[in-house]
Amino acid sequence: MEAEAVVEARALEKSYGETVALSGASLAVEAGEVFALIGPNGAGKTTLVRALTGTTAPDSGQARIMGDSPTAVDRSRLGVLPQDFSPPDRLSAHELLAYYAGLYDDARNPNDVLADVGLADTGETWYEDLSGGQQRRVCVGATLVNDPDVLFLDEPTTGIDPAGRRTVWRLIENLAASGTTVVLTTHDMAEAERLADRVGLLAGGSVIARGTPEALVRDHGGASRLTIETAADPDAFADLEYPVSRPERGRGRTPDSAVVVRDIDPAAIATVVDYLEARNFEYTGLTWSEPNLEDVYLELADQTELERTDSVDDAADHSDLAQAGETA
Ligand SMILES: Nc1ncnc2c1ncn2[C@@H]1O[C@H](COP(=O)(O)OP(=O)(O)OP(=O)(O)O)[C@@H](O)[C@H]1O
């Protein structure tokens, strides 16, 4: 029997004037799952979270949390961190958490929450005097005072330094281990890959692919790559037994400073080194990488973006992507 969805969106549509924010977004999150929503700026992630948490009403479609409509659900079982959450700043971190804790009958001790978000020593500092990353961690803490069963975190780690980010990651992992259902949005693919049981990729207002990070990488991540930092032309590698090309747009390297060897096992890297040496090709570095969620993102979401900017008449390409999503 299929597990019952704790959070569910069915064919949600939402427009702001001419702007279509959601165009049939659907997803189902099971109890205890960590579900990460990824997608380009403007894809509709925040609007989807807002529709799921009852802060915006969809034009059509249905949102459900724990079997209820988002506006009818017991708020004490819900934690929501909006992207633009900005609490009153003339309070200390501790006072802020105490304030939010005061909204619930059976709230957690603010000191324990401060410790959870790695700010045990910063409780007496005024919110406005905290760094941006510390403020964000207090905001994450504010969503935890009621020990929610379902937690929505819209870009929880944006602006947080690497150590603080890891604190929040461990916190989310602990929450998930204790059974909390978590829906988060992020632009950090490493974050999604590390935390999420499943990932939903939003583009153009709908979920175009969903699945475990492993399945998405397997289905859409492409081949392993060996990147060679060299000015040599890919054609010069014609008799190498692997496909060689320039790096694609958007993959972090200027196309004429590197070539990419695809589908190559790490054990075969020595063959390529021998090949380079035998031909006196100059190179300054070799990097082997397996496909990851960033490759999936670039393959599916950025492709959608590029098509949209390259051509206004791209309806056919969108339907291809929607089909790719159906198989994920
Ligand atoms: N209140 C609003 N009024 C008008 N347009 C809006 C409003 N909220 C969202 N939009 C528009 O809807 C679209 C989706 O926005 P949304 O914030 O949901 O995207 P997002 O995926 O969360 O983006 P980001 O990654 O930048 O946070 C965008 O084009 C945005 O400009």
Automatic annotation (TrEMBL):
<protein>
    <submittedName>
        <fullName>ATP-binding cassette domain-containing protein</fullName>
    </submittedName>
</protein>
<dbReference type="InterPro" id="IPR017871">
    <property type="entry name" value="ABC_transporter-like_CS"/>
</dbReference>
<dbReference type="Pfam" id="PF00005">
    <property type="entry name" value="ABC_tran"/>
</dbReference>
<keyword id="KW-0813">Transport</keyword>
<dbReference type="GO" id="GO:0005524">
    <property type="term" value="F:ATP binding"/>
</dbReference>
<feature type="region of interest" description="Disordered">
    <location>
        <begin position="308"/>
        <end position="328"/>
    </location>
</feature>
<feature type="compositionally biased region" description="Basic and acidic residues">
    <location>
        <begin position="308"/>
        <end position="320"/>
    </location>
</feature>
<dbReference type="GO" id="GO:0016887">
    <property type="term" value="F:ATP hydrolysis activity"/>
</dbReference>
<keyword id="KW-0547">Nucleotide-binding</keyword>
<dbReference type="InterPro" id="IPR003593">
    <property type="entry name" value="AAA+_ATPase"/>
</dbReference>
<dbReference type="InterPro" id="IPR027417">
    <property type="entry name" value="P-loop_NTPase"/>
</dbReference>
<feature type="domain" description="ABC transporter">
    <location>
        <begin position="7"/>
        <end position="229"/>
    </location>
</feature>
<comment type="similarity">
    <text>Belongs to the ABC transporter superfamily.</text>
</comment>
<dbReference type="InterPro" id="IPR050763">
    <property type="entry name" value="ABC_transporter_ATP-binding"/>
</dbReference>
<dbReference type="InterPro" id="IPR003439">
    <property type="entry name" value="ABC_transporter-like_ATP-bd"/>
</dbReference>
<keyword id="KW-0067">ATP-binding</keyword>
